[in-house]
Amino acid sequence: MNKTKIVTGGVIIVAVLVVAVAVSTGIFHSMDQPSFRLNGVAGYVYPTSNYVSYISARAGETFIAQFSSTGSAGYDWKVTTSSGIQYLNFTVVSTSHLPGASQVRNYFFKAVQSGSQTITMQDQRVFAPYNTRSTVSIRVSVS
Questions:
Q1: What CATH number belongs to 31-142?
Q2: Hey, where are the domains in the chain?
Q3: Is residue 5 classed exposed, middle or buried when 0-12, 13-18 and 19+ CB atoms within 10 A define those classes?
Q4: CA geometry: angle at 32 spanning 21 and 16, to 5°?
């Protein structure tokens, strides 16, 4: 009986480790759900730290990636997309009139081609692009 409990416990631990590795490597993941809607457009809020997100969109659909930032120290988000995603523009909403105050940045994208697409956002200094503070990868399943 004792050996059965040890073996069962070991199997559970191995199963938990396999799932953890699968999730961390992107083999198994769940789709993120929209955090808000702006005039009917799905919006996703992202942390300003290294992060990987999985979302779904239909071809022709527009969606928003939202980031908060301090707006200081010369950092800005550099946007790179695969050919099936079109980067449209971004808007900045300041939360204060003071220099360096927090901002909310809304980046607008349009899914234009079916398949697995990617968006990479790198928080970099404009004058020193090799100095990336953070990277957010958004994997988009376009149907």
A1: 2.60.40.2020
A2: 1-30, 31-142
A3: exposed
A4: 25
